[in-house]
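JOB MANIFEST
job_type = single_chain_structure
chain_count = 1
residues = 129
[input]
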Amino acid sequence: MSRPLLVLYGSQTGTAQEVAERIGREGARLHFNTRVTSMDSFPLTELPASTLTVYVASTTGQGEEPDNMKKTWKFLLRKNLPTDSLLTQRFGVLGLGDSSYPKFNHVAKKLSRRLLQLGGVQLLQPGLG
């Protein structure tokens, strides 16, 4: 039986990538078929078919998304996406940021809200670190 786990990350300095790779290794240890990649490297047309996805996103500067998720971010925020786009996706979001900034984990919080709006099933509240 196949147990796919997709881990997508948006990382500016490499920390979110390291965390995503660690999640991927743990998933493999638990016998999931894991795939770990940056958000912008993943084909967006395959996103609705990803039934179990972990998003790891850092927030940079003043609440901005990392460079390697800008394309995905822009796509997900499109107003014309159907609200049932991600009905079959169960997901979790882990945000990384600096709590001294006013927009601490802004990207992860907004990503989580948007995935819910697109019909995704949130497995747990976003983790904010």
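[summary]
The chain has a mean pLDDT of 94.
The CA atoms of residues 97 and 104 lie 6 Å apart.
exit_status = 0
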